[in-house]
Amino acid sequence: MGLRTFPSGLLRAVFVCSLYLTSSTFAFSAVSQASSDNSIAKPPAVVEANAQEVLLKVSHAVNTLNYEASLVVFRPGSEPVPYIWRHGILPDMAVTESDHVNSSPKPKTLAPSTPTNNTVEYLNSLNGPGAQVVRVGNKVSFFEADKPAFALQQSHIHGPIPHNLIRNPAAIFAAYDVVLVGKSRVTGKAALHFRVLSKDGSRYSYALWVDSETYLPLKLNTLTLKGEVLEQVQVTNLVITDSVHADFLKLEAQQLPQVRHINPPKEFALKWSITSLPVGMKEVKRDIHRLAITGELVEYKLLSDGLVDVSIYLQKAGTVPQDDVLIRNQSETFLSRVRDGLQLTVVGKIPAPTANKIMEMIALSST
To answer: Which residues form the MucB/RseB C-terminal domain (predicted)?
Structure first.
């Protein structure tokens, strides 16, 4: 099949969203089938420790310590993007560094260490016009230049490091194997090195380094099926304090926008299904809505394995030619195909062969 480079309707809407994420050049190629030769062999565990237990300590540290990190996101072919990331516990719920480091909590102690109404978080992109995100408890406020501020009811900020990997690792264990490989040195600190590998080899793998003393993350590499680096998040400076950052204490409710409430979708049945999914991936959301740009009605499903999300859209094809559209923007894959008068689209941070397999598993109802 040929490739179209000028998508319309849904394609244009999702294409614009992908441009917003990054300004790097798109690469176009035909869909190829996944090969077992491309899968990454699991490295031997050279450290006698339970990797999952250590990741629970990582989540405990990320959720309970007061810290500020300077970090940079590197993507091949793009300018590095620097961030400031802060986290704190307001005074009445503070947990000191010594409480965490000098203890060896069991899983039952670590599991409840999720964000509470007393946790505060801040993420700021330092290049360009700037975009700041502030979380107070389960309220996340967004501030961008020349745009009205708004807030959503969310438990976390979507930052450069996947949320569940460092805050709720139990959510990824069904889809990924976690291996504690060994020790290293990152940002001038002794670090523990993990590999995170999808159980069926169908998704990208990850290399994670965490501070061996505090268990806070120091570096994360996203790797292709061949082991090439797609993206790197590097912490360049990390400061841990006994008390919350002074800027958090200055926050007042009047400074933050009102929460924008989004009505939950009604229960409904879609006339299509996905017969098979990658190991550990499941449907977490479905919706029917009209595109703001075209007004076209679109059916939507969101899949997740706890680490990455995959969106699937279905709409009437109209006059769209019978050609595949494949766009690969670094770790993002956009695949669209017309079948039986319907346009199917798969979008997510997954390899192109995996997007194609998901596409092939979509079963359309004859009624």
So the answer is: 270-362
